[in-house]
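Progress note, sequence design subtask.
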């Protein structure tokens, strides 16, 4: 399992906003692409934002997949289906890079994970679409695979040395897709805090609306000192509606999720949570800093 190391520099009072975003499913008819584009552009323009890409950025479904619906493809993918030069997988990479373009060269992406949709292409077509996107975005060194850890060191600008750090556990996820109330995501992720020393546990894949919470805990030193240790768990949401808006002039068709009886999602519930990270120097001292968190849904 891979560990990625990231250095960040901060002054007292600074804060970072971490945006763990995945399950875009570009190439699916029911993906809210306009909202993805608007959100990524907005967050890319904000100096203090950082990203973790949580997998399933691409739908990656063509005629070789049992979930394929020939009348359920956006026009650019219907055209790509007939293109012998790469077909839908290549179009998926081009599409993802279009949307990620505002982030290129900004050193904002802490990590990129592979989802089950990209993973299936690795197994059936020997193409690693996540690696192709990472290479074009110049973040090949930030690839996590299906799961991994990100270790972030905070260096104080006035001192230069590391005064705080955090560990993020990233796993694309394994829950059943998006029924309302399918399992208790917070309880499940809180249990996973016991698997590692991660400060933040992130999971995707469920297609449930974003959830997150700061979980109080403590650490105990060998000298008997007790220190508060806030930790964060978050399910990172989706941009997939789970249903297609159709007018009277359209021939009716189902998505895979509506065919299986899953409920559609309202546009207001789409997208990821935001995790505010605030390294705090204690009383302006020169020792180690603590980190405060806030989850914004």
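Output:
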């Amino acid at each position: 399992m891979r560990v990625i190391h990231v250095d960040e520099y901060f002054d007292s009072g600074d804060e970072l906003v971490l945006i763990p975003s995945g399950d875009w499913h570009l190439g699916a008819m029911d993906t809210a692409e306009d909202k993805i584009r608007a959100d990524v552009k907005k967050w890319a323009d904000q100096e203090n934002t950082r990203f973790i890409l949580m997998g399933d950025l691409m739908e990656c479904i063509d005629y070789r997949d049992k979930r394929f619906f020939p009348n359920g493809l956006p026009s650019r993918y219907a055209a790509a289906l007939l293109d012998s030069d790469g077909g839908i997988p290549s179009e998926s990479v081009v599409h993802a890079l279009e949307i990620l373009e505002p982030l290129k060269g900004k050193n904002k992406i802490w990590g990129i994970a592979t989802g089950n949709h990209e993973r299936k292409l690795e197994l059936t077509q020997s193409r690693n679409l996540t690696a192709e996107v990472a290479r074009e975005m110049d973040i090949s060194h930030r690839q996590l695979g299906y799961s991994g850890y990100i270790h972030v060191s905070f260096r104080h600008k006035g001192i230069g040395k590391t005064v705080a750090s955090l560990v993020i556990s990233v796993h694309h996820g394994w829950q059943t897709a998006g029924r309302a109330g399918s399992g208790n995501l917070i309880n499940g992720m809180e249990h996973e805090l016991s698997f590692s020393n991660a400060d933040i546990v992130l999971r995707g894949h469920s297609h449930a609306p974003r959830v997150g919470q700061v979980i109080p805990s403590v650490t105990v030193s060998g000298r008997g000192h007790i220190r508060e240790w806030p930790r964060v768990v978050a399910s990172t949401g989706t941009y997939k509606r789970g249903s297609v808006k159709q007018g009277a002039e359209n021939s009716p068709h189902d998505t895979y999720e509506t065919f299986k009886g899953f409920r559609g999602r309202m546009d207001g519930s789409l997208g990821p949570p935001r995790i505010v990270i605030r390294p705090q120097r204690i009383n302006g001292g020169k020792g180690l800093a603590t980190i405060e968190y806030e989850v914004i849904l």
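Confidence is low (pLDDT under 50) at residues 177-183. Work on this subtask will continue into the next period as scheduled.
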